């Protein structure tokens, strides 16, 4: 039978345990339990062991699920990675995910039965070459899932195994943290439907706000890799920069000079002001509603409404997109 195998692996968990075991001898077991609890909450039928359900096994510092439908597997992985980021912010280890699809054969082993297949061998090979905080999936998975759920960026090929691995770019809280730039380039921009180019403008704008000028594509690539951003080839990025009102770009085959244009700086400043005013208004509206409902000002003391509202809205809109897919 053909299924998707999903392996979620804790990254550098041994080093994490070594660092914290003196103060908390059971910290590794606690982290593994948290991984199991969070992942089982995201994968359907995980209360039962495969083939009756989707849970296959916990193995070392990893947990493995088997899902029949590729789209269901990818959706569960996206939801898990979005939720797990909250624990990464609390200094738990990061995770990485690999998904492959193939035939599983049931074999008899002492004490019962188990499953074998080339898909497990593939994952063992691929996991040695991938980064943390990402979802990776093979061409076979992409061919059988809803391609609107994420963008897929070629990562590596293994010719000897006839494997092609991609990285999934999804709505990931690990990426852009400046919501004002998102507002300027997606909400306030009149051509927001050209989302792919807006993403590249977003990354380039964020870089220029930090560095002021881009002189070498390699500098941007290094900066983007550190943040987990995926960039287009240099020729496409140059075309986007030249055609965008946000940038002053002088680019040819031998040199590059890109800065924020006066119009781009003005647009970002205007959008920043609009965003900040809307944010303040939203926080006050929620605060007043809580006080009115509870009839007590004590109910809002110590509440970080900014973080609470942003996380709530991110979760809602992420769920809407996934349900639409």
The percent range for helix content is: 40-55%
% residues in beta strands: 15-25%
Number of helices: 11
CATH homologous group name of the largest domain: Nucleotide cyclase, GGDEF domain
Radius of gyration: 23 Å
Secondary-structure element string: EHHEEHEEEHEHEEHHHHEEHH
Return the CATH architecture of the largest domain: 2-Layer Sandwich
Lateral strand order in the biggest sheet: 2-3-1-4-7-9-8
CATH topology of the largest domain: Alpha-Beta Plaits
- What is the total tally of β strands? 11
Low-confidence stretches: none
Structural class: alpha+beta
Please state the average pLDDT score.
84
Q: What is the C-level CATH assignment of the largest domain?
A: Alpha Beta
N- and C-termini, Cα separation: 26 Å
- Can you summarize the main beta sheet? 7 strands, mixed
Can you describe this structure in just a few lines?
This protein is of the alpha+beta class and 325 residues long. It has helices spanning 13-20, 27-42, 70-88, 118-126, 139-142, 179-187, 195-211, 217-227, 234-243, 262-294, 305-324, and strands at residues 2-10, 55-59, 62-67, 95-103, 105-109, 112-116, 135-138, 151-158, 163-169, 247-251, 256-260.
Describe the protein:
There is one protein chain. With 325 residues, the protein is α+β, with helices and mostly antiparallel strands. It has 2 domains: 2-169, Nucleotide cyclase, GGDEF domain (Alpha-Beta Plaits, 2-Layer Sandwich), CATH 3.30.70; 175-325, Arc Repressor Mutant, subunit A (Orthogonal Bundle). Helices cover 48% and strands 21% of the residues. It has 11 helices and 11 strands. The strands form 3 sheets. Strands 2-3-1-4-7-9-8 form a 7-stranded mixed beta sheet, sandwiched between helices. A two-stranded antiparallel ribbon has the order 5-6. A two-stranded antiparallel sheet has the order 10-11. Strand 5 and strand 6 form a beta hairpin. Helix 2 (27-42) runs antiparallel to helix 3 (70-88) and helix 6 crosses helix 10. The model has no long low-confidence stretch (mean pLDDT 84).
């Amino acid at each position: 039978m053909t299924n998707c195998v999903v392996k979620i692996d804790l990254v550098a968990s041994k080093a994490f345990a070594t660092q914290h075991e003196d103060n908390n001898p059971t910290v590794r077991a606690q982290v593994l339990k948290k991984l199991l609890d969070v992942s089982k909450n995201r994968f359907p039928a995980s209360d039962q062991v495969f083939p009756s359900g989707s849970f296959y096994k916990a193995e070392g510092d990893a947990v493995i699920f088997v899902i029949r439908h590729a789209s269901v597997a990818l959706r569960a992985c996206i939801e898990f990675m979005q939720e797990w980021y909250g624990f990464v912010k609390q200094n738990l280890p990061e995770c990485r995910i690999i998904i492959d699809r193939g035939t599983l054969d049931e074999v008899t082993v002492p004490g019962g039965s188990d499953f074998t297949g080339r898909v497990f061998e593939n994952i063992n090979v691929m996991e040695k070459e991938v980064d943390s905080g990402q979802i990776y999936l093979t061409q076979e998975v992409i061919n059988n899932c809803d391609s609107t759920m994420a963008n897929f960026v070629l990562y590596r090929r293994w010719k000897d195994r006839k494997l092609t691995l991609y990285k999934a770019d999804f709505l990931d809280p690990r990426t852009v943290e400046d919501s004002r730039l998102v507002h300027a380039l997606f909400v306030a921009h009149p051509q927001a439907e050209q989302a792919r180019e807006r993403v590249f403008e977003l990354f380039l704008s964020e870089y220029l706000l930090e560095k002021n000028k881009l002189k070498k594509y390699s500098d941007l690539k290094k900066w983007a890799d550190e943040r987990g951003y995926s960039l287009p080839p240099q020729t496409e990025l140059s075309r986007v920069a030249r055609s965008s009102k946000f940038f002053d770009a002088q680019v040819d085959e031998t040199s590059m000079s890109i800065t924020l244009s006066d119009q781009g700086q003005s647009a970002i400043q205007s959008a920043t002001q609009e965003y900040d005013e809307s944010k303040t208004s939203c926080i006050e509206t929620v605060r007043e509603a809580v006080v009115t409902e509870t009839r007590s000002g004590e109910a809002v003391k110590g509440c970080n409404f900014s973080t609470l509202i942003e996380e709530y809205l991110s979760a809602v809109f992420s769920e809407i997109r996934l349900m639409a897919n």
